[in-house]
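Convert to structure. Protein one:
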Amino acid sequence: MAEKNYHMSLDLTMSIINGKWKSLILCKLGMKSRRNGELLRKIPDISQKVLTQQLNELIDDGVVKRVRFPGLPLHVEYSLTDEGKSLRKVLIDMSIWGEKHAAKLQENGQQVSFVSDNFNGYIKMNQNEKDVSQQFS
């Protein structure tokens, strides 16, 4: 296997989560294991080709696992590995930072909007931001 060189460890982290849909895929898998069709419904703008490609990259990086269940019809589920679950704090912190930064940009007259401000997939359901901040302080 070819050696990968990075300028610093942050570059490795960013290479794993970088991709138009990866953060959303990780968020949706943070809630529970999901089948391919479920992910397509939860992320309606993603194509099957791109979903498969990004899932395979996340699997190769060791943050997502694919489990094939025996029998017909074919049943495959994707879920976070322990390594993937350990990304939660990073992703939550990045989400909170993004919300705060967006508020500052809006104060300066820039228009910033989000399709969703829900990052609950990275944490247990029904925890609010205050609980999240305290949990990871």
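Protein two, convert as well:
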Amino acid sequence: MKNFLLSLVLLAGVTACNQTQKDSTKELSGKMPKMVFTDTGVYDFGDITEGDTVSRNFKFKNEGEFPLIINNIQASCGCTTPEWPKKPIEPGQESSIKVLFNSQGKRGVQNKTVTVYANTDPAYSELAFRVMVNPRDSSSTKTAQ
């Protein structure tokens, strides 16, 4: 009987601890850093000529209650270069991620993504852009003689 009562007390204690842990995890997740971008959807650079480089600052704000840390950014192609803040972005602070696209060797419609990994929930965000790369006019290119 003593063993039964002891087991019952232990079970109640474990259940209470698990519920407390779930509540604190839920409470903390609402306070996690939150990266909110000014622009949503796919950014359109419009038309450019092959060989041109274009850039865009994707602005965001940390709307969480803890500092936001960008761990890494990965571009979908070597033609796209991201630049991001290396220091933590404090709650309420704004910052931006600069994305450069080099159209050398590219033609036609280009759809690219940049994946941002940070201490947020979810752990990553994606930036997307498109650009129409028109061929360089071959008549304006000089040939060596």
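Residues 2-29 form the longest helix (28 residues). The chain is about 20% helix and 45% strand.
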